[in-house]
Amino acid sequence: MQDFTAGGAALAATPDVTAAPLIPFHLSMPVKSLQTARHFYGGLLGCPEGRSAEARVDFNFFGHHLVMHLEPDDASHKTTDISSDGVLTPCRHFGVVLPSAEWRILADRLQEGRAHFYSEPQTIFAGQVKEQQIMLVHDGCGNIVEFKGAPPHGLFSTAKAVGAS
Question: Per mean pLDDT, which range of 55-69, 79-93, 96-110 is the poorest?
Fold first, then answer.
């Protein structure tokens, strides 16, 4: 476990994500089909497969522990759409933030692999500190996955413009 204290004092509530080592999160989700999950997460995204059983499969999702459970009824419910930063987004989704160059490579791979985009690859907040590339993709299993391309320093910034603090 990472020590979040320095000389006995707690660190700030918003640590520098550019310097902090990755602390993997665990996410367990229902899917309609393990075969489809393996195609999307293992095939299209290139996530290494971990443990598996008859009704579940684990993936290394960009360093995080993603567990897909075969639960077709739970995976097939309709999610509500919300407007998030000017982009129509399903309320229930998850994803990862990548360096912009890696995001572009992944966007090209998903387009070449004919992934089903919920929101096509695009840039939002151009010229602002929070400028980022974004795309949302159906995984074919009842889930939406969001991929952002952004420099870590802008991820939690509240600045309105480049150079603002």
Answer: 79-93
DSSP label of 52: E
Distance linking the first and last C-alpha atoms of the chain? 32
Domains of the chain plus CATH, in order, are: 23-154 (3.10.180.10)
Amino acid in position 46: G
Other Cβ atoms less than 10 A from the Cβ of 12: the count is 8
What are the residues whose beta carbons fall under 8 Å from the beta carbon of 96, sequence distance 6 or more? Answer: 61, 62, 64, 146, 147, 148
Handedness of CA 89, 86, 40, 100 (dihedral sign): negative
pTM value? 0.79
Q: Which residue has the higher pLDDT, 128 or 53?
A: 53
pLDDT tops 90 at residue 146: yes
Mean pLDDT score of the chain: 82
For residue 97, which phi and psi values (nearest 5 degrees)?
-105, 125
Rounded Cα gap, residues 150 and 155, in angstroms:
7
